[in-house]
Design goal:
The chain is mostly helical. 82% of the residues lie in helices and 0% in strands. The chain contains four helices and no strands. The protein has helices at residues 5-22, 27-51, 56-83, 88-114. The longest helix has 28 residues, at 56-83.
Length: 119
């Protein structure tokens, strides 16, 4: 059974929180962790805002903000892997989920933009 997007985004945020808490207490990891925590936990919140959009334009905008935050959190995850702050194997599953969620949100934005306006 496939989890719905709301649940996946909530689970993604929870995993980002867990990862941030597990990072080494170095200056670099505190900075990266803070940035990743902010962007990674806001994706689902922005998606929830999109669900209550006041117009199609508002919906698209809020989806785009969610996508932007997801892309940023993916960047911080990739930086953690590249810098060797954590073993790449420890980040693999979360990186994979971030990439899948990025594809889903990208498609949702494209679909919402392409939908004809109602008269």
């Amino acid at each position: 059974m496939e989890r719905d997007l709301d649940e996946r985004l909530l689970e993604y945020a929870a995993r980002v929180v867990e990862l941030a808490e597990a990072l080494p207490k170095t200056m670099a990891c505190r900075h990266i962790g803070s940035q990743m925590l902010r962007s990674g936990t806001s994706v689902g919140a922005h998606y929830q805002e999109a669900q209550a959009a006041e117009s199609r334009e508002d919906f698209v905008h809020k989806l785009q903000v969610a996508l932007k935050e997801l892309r940023e959190s993916l960047y911080w995850l990739r930086l953690l892997a590249r810098s060797g702050s954590l073993p790449a194997a420890q980040l693999k599953a979360l990186l994979g989920e971030a990439i899948e969620l990025r594809a889903i949100l990208s498609k949702a934005v494209a679909t919402a933009k392409a939908r004809p306006k109602r008269p």
